[in-house]
Backbone:
């Protein structure tokens, strides 16, 4: 009986565990940062770089569209660069401009647009490789090659203010030239505060809203198979791993003792040792 009860209890427990329903709790997947930014650098930049004798090449994720340049957003670099409550959107693309028979030769890459916490102001920076400009005179010598990274070239004024707290960032505004010791190597003829081109930012998933990493669904527990015990090997009253099994064992012992006493009483009656019950 004990063995049978133990087996039934084990089977019932197995069925209960196997029948449990596990509901996967997936969090929202971490978003990606993408989109584009339009900025012509300055209205005169494209006009000058495309006139006869000069050359403008816009490649590797940037596109020349009429009098404007559109840059695709580099999501990975943008996520890494945004910090301290500011959003720094790094773009793909290369802009290569040549003029004056090669005396002016400039390549811009990794142009970044940083929006300040208030969403109203910001700055534009770029990596560059350029030939040092000497003079417009035809007899002027070719300059040496110079390089720079993260050089600030412009200030942004955005209206209305951009909301950086959400998932997406959209902004429009004006830009002006920031004249410094490095920016003049890129644009040697620009004056401080010169009005540059209008900027338009459309960035999806690049805001400061916190992302919830996806969590895998919990796996269903694996229930080990239950091997029935040999009834002949079980001893009444022995602990079989459950209080129910122990209780049944005690009842079995009491029943056996009672049966033995009943048999002894009947033998005593048959031998005349005790009177038969009436």
Residues:
């Amino acid at each position: 009986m004990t063995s049978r009860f133990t087996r039934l209890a084990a089977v019932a427990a197995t069925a209960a565990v196997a029948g449990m329903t596990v509901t996967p709790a997936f969090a929202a997947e971490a978003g990606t940062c993408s989109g584009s930014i339009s900025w012509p650098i300055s209205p005169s930049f494209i006009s000058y770089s495309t006139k006869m004798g000069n050359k403008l090449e816009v490649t590797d994720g940037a596109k020349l569209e009429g009098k404007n340049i559109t840059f695709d957003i580099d999501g990975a670099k943008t996520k890494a660069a945004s910090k301290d409550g500011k959003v720094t959107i790094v773009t793909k693309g290369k802009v290569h401009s040549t003029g004056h028979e090669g005396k002016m030769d400039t390549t811009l890459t990794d142009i970044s647009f940083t929006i300040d916490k208030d969403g109203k102001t910001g700055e534009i920076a770029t990596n560059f490789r350029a030939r040092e400009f000497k003079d417009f005179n035809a007899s002027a010598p070719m300059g040496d090659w110079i390089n720079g990274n993260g050089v600030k070239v412009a200030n942004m004024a955005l209206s209305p203010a951009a909301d950086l707290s959400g998932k997406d960032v959209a902004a429009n505004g004006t830009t002006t030239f920031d004249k410094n010791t490095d920016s003049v190597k890129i644009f040697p003829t620009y004056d401080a505060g010169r009005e540059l081109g209008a900027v338009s930012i459309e960035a999806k998933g690049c805001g400061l809203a916190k992302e919830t990493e996806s969590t895998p669904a919990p796996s269903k527990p694996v229930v080990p198979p239950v091997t029935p015990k040999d009834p002949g090997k079980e001893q009444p009253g022995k602990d079989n791993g459950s209080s129910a099994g122990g209780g049944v064992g005690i009842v079995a012992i009491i029943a056996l003792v009672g049966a033995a006493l009943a048999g002894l009483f009947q033998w005593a009656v048959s031998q005349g040792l005790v009177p038969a019950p009436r």
User: Anything to note?
Assistant: The chain has two domains: 34-204, 236-278. The first helix runs from residue 2 to 18. Residues 113 and 124 are 5 Å apart (CA to CA).
